[in-house]
Amino acid sequence: MGFSMLGSLGSHIFVGNCHGRNVKFQYYSEIGRNTVGFKLPKFRNGSGRPLSCKFESFEFDERRSPTEVKEEIERCYELIRRVGRGVVYLGSSRMGPGHSHYIQTLELGREIATLLDCTSWSGAGPGLMDAATKGALQAGKPVGGFKIGREAGEWTTSNFHPYLPPEVYLTCRFFSARKHGLVDAAVRSNITDRTAVVALPGGIGTLDEMFEILALIQLERIGSEHPIPFLLMNYDSFYSKLLDFLDDCKVKGTVFEGEVASLWKVCDNNSEALAYLSEFYDLPIGDKDGHETRLSSGHGTICS
């Protein structure tokens, strides 16, 4: 016994076509009709009552050729050329304005933008990405972003950013293109370039991006002629258990002593992050009284 039911809205579908254990879904999009099929596992209905089928909405965003990905990566690179490389922020999309980490990130975004005088980049999503963006805007510095159609939390259904002008961000279809953009935005092709990667508290997506960039730095495949400072913001000991795990990796022999520590700077607060960047780029950092302190990059004296 079979049945079929079809409802379509763009590329969203509510479709079923069942014959025994074989199930097919058909959906229509701008490229025509498509079919997805699979087999159900064997089961018994001991109650003798009819079984019900539940249908949920599916969204298909097919990659029809590698050329599509290549073209999107090229658009990411073009946006970076127009807006300028700078500091890349990775962080949770779920920690909103009421969270203490949001407030800390907003302040950090403002202070780093002022210190390095460069573009601030993020995934152009909500949460801590939004905080870093707003902080840079408060400092009067340029921002850029690589948005994705799906983010945990807010803004999941719109391809448009709620307040950024469209010329400073790109909505990506493919995560691979977005990652290429976030990596290239931090590349230092000149010794005078001031860029950085700042890993804020986050979940699976943040960890994915963070360790991918760390691996590129470790293997010297990030494409930067000059070293890129990488800061891990350990607000309220957020990453302490991860750091304990990496210490265990040293004991197990999967990483060498000092290998992970050489890839990043762990910062417990914004002051440590600003001091590290100031030292890395040999820049003066202002104190609350308006005085400037210059921290040398490993040689020379500290002046105030």
Automatic annotation (TrEMBL):
InterPro entries: LOG_fam
Organism: Trema orientale
Top-level taxon: Eukaryota
PANTHER family linked: CYTOKININ RIBOSIDE 5'-MONOPHOSPHATE PHOSPHORIBOHYDROLASE, EXPRESSED PROTEIN
Signal peptide coordinates: none
Any matching Pfam family: Lysine_decarbox
The protein's name in its UniProt record: LOG family
